[in-house]
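PROTEIN DESIGN WORKSHEET
SECTION A - STRUCTURE
LENGTH: 430
TOKENS:
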């Protein structure tokens, strides 16, 4: 049976598979808005795709003529110099359906938090492998490449085209790299996005908005009786309102059917700012205080609906509060609204993934919504290629000691290979 020979190939090639993860993790590719350092890892992806027999296309997103004129282009000063996309096409023998794997090679910065493992070593400890970006989402792309290598080594002739695209600038609401691939003409009968789904088939992803909330005070020190207004007190009051909003919306939300088992809608407060960081003993009231908040929503919720819900909740509370009514919040949108997205639950690619999962995993794979936002909307909204999220399991994405669970990662390769066989169709070379 195909599953047994695929499983045996993975067992034999385990060391080289994990070494490929190590190789990609060892090449830093941090997204430091508005710049990024994806170049070297993208050149490595290009090299590996060519070794597998793919015809590759290496191009900057800004090389695509219509990119900046497209309604979905995020025009916020991002710099794409030395940040190429890489797309590999493996032409099939004909008659099969085409399949596209799409992932991003940019990672969040390592940050100042302490790692107990070297973020660039790809160290294996027991059943886990560590590394910055290994879960989100370098190992998922390795799984796609290894699935193709496995089938070619086993002398399968794939009938449909297989496309593997590695894009830049997905973090921080980017997705211009993904949009550029759509506008460059890369399409398929279905796409798989190897975001970390914990081996759950995710036809849907959440959306969200990112806001900066600022409070303007009256700075200084009242040596001569001047009246100062400290905006930190207003921010503290509003943070409590944010906490109440998070609890209220999760209690009263109309839960999307694909999120019944994981209904939480995150509301994440981050990056608080106040005062002069270079004036520790300045002995003065700061002029302003601000913080950033990310608010997620279910597929089908519009930007206008999410904003109306948020402001409709806090506005009456602001008006009733003595401090906040004097120093009201100023709301600024920081990044594009990321729309939630989804596929019809009867789409054929979902059935094929289910069948492949049933062969590989006892009891099969769960079908649910992804509890995060990503660039899948660029497929489902702005192209003819329907996209499903299905990727590795692990933990600590966007945090120290990011890791993948190796046994599940190997299952992912197996399921990808079986999916290619079933979706693209293949036969043995004679």
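SECTION B - SEQUENCE
RESIDUE ASSIGNMENT:
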């Amino acid at each position: 049976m195909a599953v047994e020979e695929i499983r045996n190939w993975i067992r034999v090639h385990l060391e080289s598979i994990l070494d490929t993860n190590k190789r990609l993790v060892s090449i830093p590719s941090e997204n430091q808005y508005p710049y990024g350092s994806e170049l070297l890892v993208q050149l490595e992806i290009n090299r590996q795709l060519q070794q597998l027999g793919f015809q590759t296309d290496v191009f900057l997103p800004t090389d695509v003529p219509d990119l900046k004129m497209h309604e979905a282009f995020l025009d916020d000063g991002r710099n794409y110099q030395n940040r190429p996309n890489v797309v590999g096409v493996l032409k099939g023998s004909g008659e099969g359906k085409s399949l596209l794997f799409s992932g991003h090679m940019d990672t969040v910065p390592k940050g100042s938090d302490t790692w107990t493992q070297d973020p660039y070593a790809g160290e294996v400890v027991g059943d886990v492998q560590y590394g910055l970006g290994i879960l989100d989402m370098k190992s998922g792309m390795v799984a796609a490449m290894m699935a193709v290598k496995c089938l070619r080594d086993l002398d399968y002739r794939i009938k449909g085209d297989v496309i593997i695209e590695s894009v830049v600038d997905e973090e921080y609401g980017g997705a211009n790299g993904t949009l550029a691939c759509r506008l460059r003409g890369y399409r398929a009968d279905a796409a798989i996005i190897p975001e970390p789904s914990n081996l759950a088939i995710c036809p849907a992803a959440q959306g969200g908005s990112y806001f900066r909330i600022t409070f303007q005070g009256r700075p200084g020190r009242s040596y001569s009786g001047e009246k100062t207004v400290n905006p930190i007190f207003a921010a503290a009051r509003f943070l409590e309102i944010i906490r109440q909003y998070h609890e209220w919306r999760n209690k009263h939300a109309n839960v999307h059917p694909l999120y019944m088992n994981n209904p939480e809608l995150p509301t994440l407060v981050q990056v608080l700012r106040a005062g002069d960081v270079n004036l520790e003993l300045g002995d003065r009231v700061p002029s302003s205080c601000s913080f950033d908040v990310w608010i997620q929503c279910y597929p089908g919720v519009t930007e206008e609906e999410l904003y109306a819900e948020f402001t409709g909740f806090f506005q009456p509370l602001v008006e009733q509060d003595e401090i906040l009514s004097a120093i009201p919040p100023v709301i600024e949108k920081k990044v594009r609204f990321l729309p939630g997205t989804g596929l019809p639950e009867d789409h054929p690619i979902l059935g094929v993934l289910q069948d492949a999962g049933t062969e590989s995993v006892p009891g099969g794979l769960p079908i649910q919504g992804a509890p995060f936002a990503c660039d899948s909307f660029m497929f489902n909204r702005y192209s003819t290629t329907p996209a499903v999220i299905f990727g590795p399991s692990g933990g600590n994405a966007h945090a120290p000691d990011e890791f993948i669970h190796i046994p599940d990662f190997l299952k992912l390769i197996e399921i990808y290979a079986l999916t290619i066989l079933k979706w693209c169709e293949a036969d043995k070379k004679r």
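SECTION C - NOTES
The chain is about 35% helix and 25% strand.
The first helix runs from residue 2 to 12.
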